Amino acid sequence: MNVTLLAIAGGVIILGLASYAGYLLLQLKKQKELQLRHQQLAIEKRNANIFENVHTLCLAGIQGQCDLSEISIRVYCIMDYVQGDERLDFDKEFPATSELYHVVKDMARGEDRQALSKKERMQQNLARHKAESRLQDAIVEELKVLQQKVQPLNNQINIQML
Question: Where is each DUF2489 domain found (predicted)?
């Protein structure tokens, strides 16, 4: 009789602990799903912000408000931060912009440029102007395509705690 009662009590305790462990595993699964959903929303919000900036840069480049070399540097670098499915292979999809970026990326800018000798500055200017004039039409067309490509993705996402 004592053994039977102990076995029943042990079985009830084990059943209770197993139920509690199952409940905890279910809560853990829900928490991981929620974290993954929040991470996806954060990535979408970040990408939307990036696309809004790229859209503005494309508009400035198309309208000629900024040098194409400056636009190529900014757009190429900022598109490198896109995450997820919207990430682009910029070198393949926009070869002219990518080519201009690779031409001007190592050229001195700002104070470094002022520190160069006049001859070096003129050589860099000449190389930059040659590349810009040769690629201008293709880059403007690529900026139009890029602008259209990021336009539908440019949706602001409000993240709220659930």
Answer: 14-144
Per run of 10 residues, the mean pLDDT along the chain (length 162 residues) is: 87 93 95 93 88 91 88 91 83 90 84 81 86 89 89 58 54
pTM of the model: 0.72
Could you tell me the CA-to-CA distances from 29 to 15, 52, 135 in Å, in that order? 21, 35, 53
Query: How far is 45 from 82, CA to CA, in rounded Å?
Result: 11
What single letter denotes the amino acid at residue 156? Answer: Q
Burial (CB count <10 Å: 0-12, 13-18, 19+), residue 24: exposed
| Chain-centroid distance, C-alpha 95 | 19
What does the DSSP 8-state code read for residue 42?
H
| Cα dist from 40 to 5, 57, 109, whole Å | 53, 25, 36
DSSP 94-145: -HHHHHHHHHHTTS--THHHHHS-HHHHHHHHHHHHHHHHHHHHHHHHHHHH
For residues 160 and 158, give the distance between their C-alpha atoms in angstroms, rounded to a whole number: 6
Cα separation, 100 vs 121, whole angstroms: 18
